[in-house]
Design brief:
alpha/beta; Arc Repressor Mutant, subunit A; Rossmann fold; two-stranded parallel ribbon; 5-stranded parallel sheet; Helicase, Ruva Protein, domain 3; 13 helices
């Protein structure tokens, strides 16, 4: 029996219950390579129903989810169902937009603001002022959808986000579960991604060899749909005869352990500036698992400065 004969295609995506119509290829974000709206899990169908119900009446909302989970694609889905479909889909970095174009008087259309969770306190204050000003404008001219990789209400409870801004943005909240929590979506997503990638490389027939789908299901996908797309594209280029084998997948030899849930960020008891700086430096160092070079780069300080801070040397002259 040849390798081609032993290969098995992915099962087709068959949802167990009817859901809302999905957007066509024109709504797919280039970086995700396929619509993240493909899925059969109960959590995913519930999210689509929520989006379908809210989209025609949307004015302000937030989409929360890990990197690569499909936040922009969901925003485009909301746009496709909104009353402002005949306008442009405007995707902007929140910080850049606040610095250049955040004028409530001239705002119009569907505005998607990336990563509001990265805003500093002054930036949060500016965005809150914009939202308050928009309240005085007639509804229907502006729809503002923000994205965040961190739950905004949790950030607010930790003192990292303005509570008023968090509650305004999360009045309508779309939470995308990570791919590791909806494994039944991996097969239909892989099918859709593989079809689109194969079309891009002008390959007519690509299938998964024995054991390949099982290997995909074992991985925990910390990069979510974006990682799945990248792995499949690399595997297709490594494959032969249109068959993707498990050995073609650029994945660790052992399945990844599920990542730990994020721990709340504690506040330093000592509010002196030196103590606050050291507390933050140690927090960043913990995030990088003790890698001092990487931590210093993220903090934008030299390694010698990092060592001084960790040695409890005075940072400020009296």
């Amino acid at each position: 029996m040849t390798r081609q004969q032993t290969a098995v295609p992915l099962p087709p995506a068959q949802p167990s219950a009817p859901g809302p119509a999905l957007p066509g290829p024109s709504l797919v974000e280039p970086e995700s390579a396929a619509s993240a709206l493909v899925g059969v899990s109960a959590a995913w169908r519930k999210l689509l129903v929520q989006a379908e119900m809210a989209a025609p009446h949307l004015q302000l909302a937030v989409i929360e989810g890990e990197h690569g989970s499909g936040k922009t694609t969901l925003a485009r889905y909301l746009f496709s169902r909104s009353p402002l479909l005949n306008t442009a889909f405007q995707r902007r970095d929140t910080r850049e937009w606040l610095a250049t174009d955040a004028d409530p008087v001239t705002m119009a259309g569907f505005l998607y603001l990336d990563r509001v969770d990265l805003l500093t306190s002054p930036g949060q204050g500016l965005l809150l002022g914009v939202l308050k000003a928009l309240q005085d404008r007639p509804p229907g001219r502006v729809i503002l959808v923000a994205s965040s990789e961190s739950p905004l209400r949790h950030m607010a409870s930790q003192g990292l986000f303005l509570p008023d801004l968090a509650f305004r943005l999360t009045a309508i909240r779309f939470a995308i579960a990570p791919l590791r929590q909806r494994r039944e979506d991996i097969a239909p997503l892989a099918q859709t991604l593989l079809e689109r990638i194969a079309a891009r490389y002008q390959q007519r027939h690509v299938v998964l060899g024995p054991g390949t789908l099982a290997r995909l299901l074992q991985h925990n996908w910390p990069g979510n749909v974006r990682e799945l797309s990248s792995v499949l594209e690399t595997a297709l280029l490594e494959s032969s005869n249109g068959v993707i084998r498990a050995s073609d997948l650029a994945l660790p030899d052992h399945p990844l352990a599920a990542p730990a849930e994020p721990q709340p960020i504690s506040r330093p008891e000592n509010l002196a500036l030196d103590a606050v700086v050291r507390h933050h430096v140690r927090y960043v160092l913990d995030l990088n698992r003790g890698n001092k070079l990487r931590a210093a780069r993220q903090l934008r300080i030299s390694r010698s400065t990092l060592y001084r801070i960790l040695a409890d040397e005075p940072l400020l002259s009296s």
